[in-house]
Amino acid sequence: MTVPSVQLNDGNSIPQLGYGVFLVPADDAERAVSEALEVGYRHIDTAAIYKNEEGVGRAIAASGIPRDELFVTTKLWNDRHDGDEPLAAIDESLQKLQLDAVDLYLIHWPTPKNDNYVHAWQKMIEIREAGKARSIGVSNFLVPHLDRIVAETGVTPVVDQIELHPALSQREIAAWGQEHDMHIESWGPLGQGKYDLFEIPAVKDAAEAHGKSPAQAVLRWHIQHGFIVFPKSVRRERLEENFDLFDFELTADEMAAIDAVDPGDGSGRVGTHPDDHASSPYLRAHADNPVAWFPWGAEAFALAAERDVLVMISIGYSTCHWCHVMARESFQDAETASILNDGFVSIKVDREEHPDVDAAYLDAASAFTPHLGWPLTVFASPEGRVFYAGTYFPPTPRPPQPSFRQVLAAVREAWTERRGEVDATGSALRDALAAAAVAPADAPPSLDQLAAAARTVVAREDREYFGFAAGPAFETPKFPNTPVLRFLQHPALASGVPDAAAVASRALSAMVDSDLHDTVEGGFFRYATRRDWSVPHYERMLTDNAGLVEVALAAGDEAAATDAARFLVDVLQLPSGGIAAAQDSESIIDGVRNEGGYYRAVDRSALQPPALDAKVVTGWNGHAIAALAAAGTRTDPRFLEAARWAADAVLESNVADDGTLRRASLDEIRSAAPATLEDYGGLARGLLALARATGEVAYASRARALVDLCVQADGIHPPGGGDPILVAQGMQPHGVPSDGASPSGPSVFAQAALDLWRLGAGEEYRTAAENLVRAAAETALAAPLAHGAILEVALGLASAPRQVVVVGETDAEIADAARRLRADVVAVVSPEQAVAFAEAGFALFEGKVAQGGEATAYDCRAFTCALPTTDPARLV
Q1: So which residues are the catalytic ones?
Q2: Which position has the higher pLDDT, 199 or 787?
């Protein structure tokens, strides 16, 4: 059977049907390409990042097929765009492929955040002129990228290789290609397993009408549209089926019916959006590993099912010290990578980008190890059933801890030799996790119950060094644990647990006076490895420092609050206004990675600071906005401006076109990861704090809209209902999430809902907060040290709120007096702003005016206000 060819705009021809080897391991690639060539394929598509060019090259060399009868494509990876890197990259690919030239060389992704793709395209032209690539094109370019490279170089790509299938037909790019004589290549032509082809009536009907499979009907749809298509498979029978496309033709009606599958809103996308690519610094840092990493997504599990191998899921984050160590020891090791690539499909997950994925696998991992942390290493079946997990594994055995290679060998042996046992373990674990869900309490906890929980926490205080150690015997490490400190500081505990606030103040003072506190640049490190708060782990997190700003303000320590806030602003705030997630524990000193050396140096000015994790996490920025807004009204006004800047940046960069949030952005490129309840609640809480501090009702209205998106008829959850892969696999977290370095999603969302109720937005918001608190009550009361934030919300529900509104000049003496109160709501607004709040549906502001033209305070308890006053002394 002869495969038709299409002519490219440079006069060369390309077979319309090819064979793709996306992330097929090198050894499998050699076998699979050899079989594909035997079947009749003559167009092979690979890439440097696939880590299998050597296997493709060996198959081509062994085939005996004349070179002029083969068409070979490879691609330039994202980190090779600058300088002469494209020239070096093509030489490396040609050496691995054992070729003098490739038929087609593509820029793999535009990576617009680097703004080097035009330069890379100019180098591609040089590569073509040097005869090392007969044709040049691009992959995953959008119309603006295409317009720009043509305008600046005058050279049109011969192809754009893009994700294209019935659910994502990419009509705009296809139309551009027709207009500019550029062909479209389809990667993921069968939808990467995201949807069942048999469930699409148009596909099913067309397949049945011609006696073909649904996959053949879809591939034929590509061919008849003129697209160049290269399905991938590692099974001989599928190779043959995918090749058998040229003895039938879809009718015009059948083509139109399949065309209509795409809703046109981009929701059918399976892979990463070009503007989102590598929106995690953690994934970027692992891009050059010899491990063939997949990002989190359906495609990895689909490939594992096709190859009948296990999935290895490695979860970490960019400033994690032991993640760096395991990367150097194992993931950068070529032999270990070969074992992974041969026997597993490997997924790299940034826990900060996908917190629900992290939580789900932490739940599962707890069945195998009591000591959890990161990197988290999980082994699962292609259906997502976890059957083994651990954290860091060393490169060589450290009894009783096995080496990582020993673990890989053991789990692979279990999968191949004892499959039934593995499946049973995975199913039993999933059922056990689902059964562990706790039923909601009949009512939120009473004040007496919450006081008892606080006394439990107080009893765990380290009375010598203060704070709370990891266990009852004062084991280390010691963390700030700001949610618990904020719980203890709640005024509702003052009578029942009179020492509660003092415990929090003692912990704060101990941290301020310890090595955990960076007195040079401000801020606090992640944790101390010793009981006396010494020998810190030098990573500095947004979450810890935002929480400590609020703890310090509640304790009356404005100096400590200022110190943590200036770290957020001076170190973590990015040029865009967003606030970075963290600063690394390691820096480069004298060419060597050094943990903590920068921070211990007497003079830092001559040293390169540790890298920032520049991800702008939506919910975490909400925490920072709330903290900075509060600090800006109490200490330095520049913090309030920083909070406003951050809020505006997040609302610009982390909001999708449909108005929903995305989890994060990097370099103003939105992550593909959907936002979690933590993001909606955290940002809403931050915006409400900013609204109270600035008097700008637009921030409060935006916060209310975010909360409304998540309060739905079937419960409280982010739009879309959570990570679709976890939902499909039955692996979503089932228990009550803990409040660790920052409040959990349910906790911060409950706080935002409660804040809306306190502003008079409506009883439905108090109900939402109550529902979340009831769901967590039993677990939180039993383990209060792990659930401080939700217990703080419960205190807010169990006690009458104090709401103070000042209407008038914002710099009046009575306004300053109000800002220093321990009240649930302190809002300072102009008369015009008070009217705007009331008209926007925030009833707390109704009827509140500046009496006699003077700034006037309204001191209320549960919406019942004392007589208005203009005397600051009346506010106590």
Answers
A1: 50
A2: 787
